[in-house]
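[09:14] KT: can someone run the structure on this one? pasting the chain below
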Amino acid sequence: MYYQYFGLTEAPFSIAVNPRYLFMSARHRDALAHLLYGVGAGGGFILLTGEVGTGKTTINRCLLEQLPSSTDVAIILNPALNAIELLASVCDELGIQYDHHNHTLKTLTDNLHSFLLENHARGRKTVLLIDEAQHLDFDVLEQIRLLTNLETNNEKLLQIILIGQPELAQMLARPELRQLNQRITARYNLDPLNLDETSAYIQHRLQVAGMSPERVVFSPAVVRGIYKATRGIPRVINVLCDRMLLGAYGRNMPHVEHDMLRLAIREVLGEQPADSTVWRWLAIGLVVLLLVWGGGWLLGKYSGVLDADVAGAAGIATSPGNTPEPAVVPEAETAPVVPEALPAATDPVEVPAPEVPPEPAALTESAPQPETVGIADAMLSTGDTMARLWELNSDQPVPPFPCQQDVQQGLACLEGEVWTWDELAAFDRPMSLEAITAERFSAEVLLLGIDGSMAWVWTGAGVAQVSLAELAPYWTGRYRFLWRPPQGYTKPVVIWDESPVVSAVAQLFAQLDNQPEPLAGRHFNRALEQRVRLFQQQNGLIDDGVVGEQTLLKLNAQLGVDITAAGARKRLQADSAQRAGE
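[09:31] RB: done, structure tokens below
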């Protein structure tokens, strides 16, 4: 099997629910916290919704494992039942005795009520968990609501958990179910994974299956494609990754490539990847523009010829005889035409020169143009670019390996892989680009920004520009740069986390908003999450409320924590000018 080819002990992306592969993302932890809170609150309904494959079953299992031993649980996995059948199933799950041949809705309810009272007297809780609850009929839902009327003077005797797809919440919002909807004490919609969580999820499953953390089978660019195709739904991620690993095994490749992703999307999802669709429409648009431009060019080119033909035809029609004579242009017509209003040439007239406003000094002097170099001058030896990046970001001595530790002297190294210059320009930071020379040697390019079709680079002798078209064939797509994470930051922080990192993030937002007090201390509360979501929306990020690298990079950029590409360019130009003056 393919997993042996990759050195794995088992298939890592099976869709079967395996507790060993449990991955609790921030949203899964949040959902579990809501369920545990609802159970602890006592009585009423708890509602958990989510798209197919988002991990609701995983939450269910975690909830059951964390319930105290003094809790009796009845689980209904097939809700396609009528009211009597549902009550009978609940009694069967709880071990309640009843007449299987002669029972009614009343007798089942009475038996259940007696059991709940006895359980409460013994200090035990009773929980009813109904999965796929979106399939429940209206009459059954109404009967379930009536079960919550079984209570003492202090609390409800039965806690009911409804789990289903998003249409369950829509169904409960109907006016005829408002009584049930008002009794929901805790509700949570389980959203799919975000991009960072998708990457962590894939790596987590590979490591559980036996792969070393250092090995990269799915590059960041491929993971981004997986996220776009699956929208972060774990079950679809499993199916897609399993198909891609099988494809890599069939091609005897050590890692997954983009063409394997496109093929897997077609085979598993039955659709073209979004990127290819976009490019197809762009190509169609380009062809249309070329046709329009070409038509306009031809029209302009031949309009003069057509006019000449028309004029010639007119001359033939007016001349006597059948054979037209060639037209002779008089010499006078070759002289320039002088308007009658002007005086004769013998009468000199002083014509005043037109008044021209004085040009600004900045325009009269030619601005210095940036030096343009070839690709060979932009290539630097491996390691030189990271040393220069360290000098731009820190006054401390350059460490031997600036990019091999998590954080050194407050600086962290972020590396990844992208496919377009637009993605690099969005970072707005000086960065090291991995390149391969024409002789197939490793090299690096220190990118200092992108200006139209040109790239600002450091040549070792100074700042210059090189054509992006010339640089592109030598760039592998990988990049690295340095940035300053909050002190103690090692992984994304989410709601309900408690650490000094949360306090540091809250301080950054307070500084951004010019507020004297931060929204949170060490505890990641709702107020901070809402501020994070708003910031993410304003900056074109996924508004999941999770403070990861992308959110922190945007925050650092707005606060001036990290050096920008333009700032690095100016500093290096100033250093070069100072050395030249010496």
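[09:33] KT: thanks! Confidence is low (pLDDT under 50) at residues 273-279, 305-367.
[09:34] RB: yep, looked fine to me
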